[in-house]
Every structure is written in structure tokens, then in C-alpha cells.
Amino acid sequence: MNTPLSTSSSSAGSTAAAPASAAIAVVIPYFQRQEGVLQKALASIGGQQLYPAEVIVVDDSSPVPARGEVEAVQRRWPHLNIRVIEQPNGGPAAARNKGLDSVSPQCDYVAFLDSDDEWHDTHLLHANAALAPGNDFYFSDFFRLGQSNTVFEQSTAFRKDAHPVLPGGFPVAQYQGDMTEQILGANVIGTSTVVYRFRKFANQRFREEFVYAGEDFLFWLTLSTLTKSYVFGTTAEVTYGRGVNIYAGSGWGTEKSMDRLHYETKLELALPRLFRLNAEQRGRNRAKLRFLRQTMLKDIVHRLAHRKTINAPLLRRHLAMDPLLPLYVPSVAWQMVAGRLRPQAAARKE
């Protein structure tokens, strides 16, 4: 099925012709504390070689309101059709869901863009070309913040050259293999690279109970059980930025480390309940839970030893969610004692 291209009429006060557009809705969850971040993301849409039909910015009670950011961008790109929806703070999953609920009937596809990321100018052009033959899900290579190598280049479990390039002259390929296993074993799907056939999966939504960790991962995983028709851009089409990040600097004993471990554990506990895992996947899931439980206990010990605050309500919720955590106390205690003994033994040997 080909998605028709259209050309919008000029906005008032603008004499330049609008670029061609496709039936794509862009959904942007927005919560930032710094002015100008959203403007950069929107400017990267304004610079696209193929325009979306609409851009939906969901202001999740952002400290810097979205409307002022949007007005500044629309003065420069009057042809961009941008809507701002404001809602009480609910996290990125709730904001994305609100955006999905608001997609106009004429839009066949949805593209996601986080408010601190920027698209390269060919992103929507490549995505539209890759999805037009009837494919369901598109993603691309991308740069993480401060990285000179792309995610595909860094991955040892994803080889873009192992997948056939689609005809048409664009750097896009047809994914060959088990996408469920790819996501579970070595996920390379970046949220801001995704464009998918929204109308075919119009009832799918992000799981809001995961709040800040795993909601996008579970969305991709759910779609992987519903379709095998995946395509991807072989070149980097997105650069990730530095905006509000709940887990920035979340090492042991930091303000957000327990939050991060709580939601990562919640995700791993949910996987066997939500999806049919094979034996190898169940084994990886158990190993990850073991690691997370040990790390949570080490984080708590670190806090106690350094007289740092422990979030007691969070800890109670965590124990209710994962009552097996106390069973790992002996093994963690032994690891910590052995870790202290090894340097002492090495010093005596010298």
C-alpha cells in the first residue's frame, strides 16, 4: 500500500511552497526544564525532506511550557502543522498515549520523537519509502549522546549487512530474523527512530504503570508478536540529545539509583507474565533478575555505610513487588566480604 504524498497550501504571510508531505503523525512527549530544547527537535522536523501531516506535542506539565517553544518554530516553518496538548504530569508513556489518542484520521503512520532528540533530514523520507510497500515497522541507526560510533556499529548482535537492501535506491533494508529475540537479546530500536503503521495497530498503547523504564521496550516487544514485517534504515538518522533524564547519574547511592533498579526489576518480573519466553530467554531473564536483586542490596548497603537517604516508601513497594529480594542477602554479604578479602590476600602474597 503506497502512502500518498501531498503538498500543503502556503500559510498566511508565507510565499514559499510547502514541501511534499506524507500521512505521518509525529508524537512528541514533552517535559523539559531548559528553554530551546524542544525548538531544536521541532527544527529537525522543519528540515525534513518529507514533511509529516501533523506534529502532536503533548506538554506533560513541563516547567518550560511547550506553547512558547512551538510559536518560535512556527514563525520559521509556518507550513508545519503543530498541535499542543496539555495534560497533568504522567510520564512519557502517558504522554505518548495521549498523542496516539489524538492522531488525525488521515494519518496512516506514527513517528516518535523525544523532545531532546533531533532527526537527520532524510528520516521521514526513508521511513515512508520503506513502509510504503506494505511493511509495518521502521527503525534506523542512531547516535547516542556524545558517541562517535552509531548503535548499530557498537552492537555485536546486530549486523545490518545480514539483511537485504530494499529496491528503490534508499539505504533501507528488510529485517530478516526473529525480532522478538532481537529485542529481548540485544535491542537496537531507539524510540526516536521508530515510524510504524498506526492504523493496523491502532489499539496498541504504552504501559503507563512502568512510568520511566521499559514502557517503550514493551511496546516494541508487543508489536513483534503481531507482525514480522520490519524494515530499517542502515544509516544513522537520529542524534540523541541531553534533556531531562530521570536516570542521569544514577550510580550507586545517587538520588535515582533505587528508582532505576526498581523499574528495571519491575520490567524483568513482567516479561514472563506478558510474553511466552523460550528456555534461553527465561534463563536470561532469571540471570538479569539475580543481578538486579544483588545490585539493589548493594545499593542499600552503600547508602547505609555512607549515611545516605533510603527512600523507605519505594523500598516497601519494591519488597511487595519482589518478595524474593531478602533471599539474596547471604550471597550479597559473601560477595562484599570476599571482595574485601581478595585485595588483602593479594597484598600478603606480594
Record the SSE blueprint.
Blueprint: E1 6-7, E2 20-30, H1 37-46, E3 51-59, H2 66-76, E4 82-86, H3 92-101, E5 109-112, E6 118-119, H4 123-131, E7 137-143, H5 151-154, E8 172-174, H6 179-186, E9 195-197, H7 215-224, E10 230-239, H8 257-274, H9 279-305, H10 312-321, H11 329-349
Parallel strand pairs: 2-3, 2-5, 3-4, 7-10
Antiparallel strand pairs: 1-2, 5-9, 6-10, 7-9, 8-10
Helix pairs in contact: 1-2, 6-7, 8-9, 8-10
Please give the number of β-strands: 10
Q: What form results from the Cα inertia axes?
A: globular
Helix content: 25-40%
In round numbers, the mean pLDDT is 90
Cα-based radius of gyration, to the nearest Å: 23 Å
Terminal residue distance: 72 Å
Overall structural class, as computed from helix and strand content, comes to: alpha/beta
Order of helical and strand elements: EEHEHEHEEHEHEHEHEHHHH
Explain this structure:
This protein has helices spanning 37-46, 66-76, 92-101, 123-131, 151-154, 179-186, 215-224, 257-274, 279-305, 312-321, 329-349, and strands at 6-7, 20-30, 51-59, 82-86, 109-112, 118-119, 137-143, 172-174, 195-197, 230-239. The chain has 350 residues and is of the alpha/beta class. Strands 1, 2, 3, 4, 5, 6, 7, 8, 9 and 10 form a 10-stranded mixed sheet that branches. α1 runs parallel beside α2, α6 runs antiparallel to α7 and α8 runs parallel beside α10. 38% of the residues are buried.
